[in-house]
Design goal:
CATH topology of the largest domain: D-Maltodextrin-Binding Protein, domain 2
Mean pLDDT: 92
Largest sheet: 8 strands, mixed
Number of helices: 11
Distance between the termini: 52 Å
Shape: globular
Number of strands: 10
């Protein structure tokens, strides 16, 4: 009996290794944990086409929205670790442990990390007639009038707002919104004073003078607004709030499959169509070093720790 079990296990391992060596032999599913039509969905449709060209197999998008982006990861964590189901997620997967008590996944232990694709910094903006002729004067006004200054919050912009208040030593009045669109409308209409939003969205409004750029929230200036300095270089040392988009898979992929997926991801970094897409939107495409499992693991661990601290210090308790 033992010999039969040993033989069966050996045959099973041989079959698994053979399947891994020929990966991929059929289309892949890319789970996007957000509704169709949003920025993540648009980016991922471009990426899926580029990855398909690398792997010589179609990559099919499956939108698994809901649950503040937590339903998709829970499903992927339970999926077979064969490489045919992969997942896109962003900064939200790292903030989830500090926001939700009963997550059905652990971002630190339940996934194989493939690598990061792109970084999407935001712009901290003010209404067009906000006081202050330069950055120092703007910050001085905010500090002197923090009981009157309002800042919009929605999704990642809430994180920017919390970090901005921590960096400036202020406590502003936050105005929550259900989405970035309504918040931008209110900033343009001068109903709120400040707002952070994706650099890929706000460029035309800044150039038209409908809102005022205060600074880029990442450590690098953005391609579509190169004249706008970062908050870090203007004096808020160390300020960084960037929405990164990375790729994950169920835990314990066979090594040849993991290596093939990582190579495919890295190959997309120079895909002309994908590069052109991110250049248009202001996204900062990752380097090959950032598109690795080790780099993504370090990023997720760092972001879980950072935002856990920021959210706790802001008095936000997990629900």
């Amino acid at each position: 009996m033992l010999e039969r079990l040993t033989l069966a296990a050996a045959l099973g391992l041989t079959a698994t290794l053979a399947a891994a060596q020929t990966f991929p032999a059929r289309p892949l599913t890319l789970v996007v944990p957000f509704a169709a039509g949003g920025p993540s969905d648009a980016h991922m449709r471009q990426f899926a086409a580029a990855l398909g060209r690398q792997l010589h197999q179609p990559v099919i998008i499956e939108n698994v929205g809901g649950g503040a982006g937590n339903i998709g990861p829970a499903r992927v964590a339970r999926s077979p670790a064969d490489g045919y189901t992969i997942m896109q997620h962003n900064l939200g997967i790292a903030t989830a442990p500090a926001l939700y008590k009963n997550l059905e996944f652990n971002p630190l232990t339940d996934f194989d990390y493939l690598g990061t694709l792109v970084f999407d910094p935001s712009l901290m903006m003010a209404r067009s007639d906000f006081p202050g002729g330069n950055f120092k004067e703007v910050i001085a006004y905010i500090k002197a009038n923090q009981d009157k200054v309002t800042i919009g919050t929605s999704g990642p912009s809430h994180l920017s707002a919390l970090l901005f208040m921590e960096a400036t030593g202020t406590k502003l009045t936050t105005v929550p919104y259900k989405g970035g669109g309504p918040a931008m409308n209110d900033l343009v209409a001068k109903h709120i004073d400040l707002l952070s939003n994706s650099a890929s969205i706000v460029g035309p409004l800044i150039k038209a003078g409908k809102v005022r750029a205060i600074g880029v929230t990442g450590r690098q200036r953005v391609a579509n607004l190169p004249e706008v300095p970062t908050l870090d270089e203007q004096g808020l040392s160390g300020f960084e709030m960037v929405v990164w988009t990375s790729m994950f898979a169920p835990k314990n992929l066979p090594r040849p499959v993991l290596e093939r997926l990582v190579a495919g991801l890295q190959g997309t970094l120079t895909d002309p169509d994908l590069v052109a897409h991110f250049n248009r939107t202001g996204g900062q495409i990752a380097t090959r070093e950032q598109a690795t499992p080790a780099a993504l693991q370090a990023l997720v661990r760092s972001e879980v720790e950072k935002w856990g601290r920021v959210l706790k210090n802001a008095g936000i308790q997990p629900e």
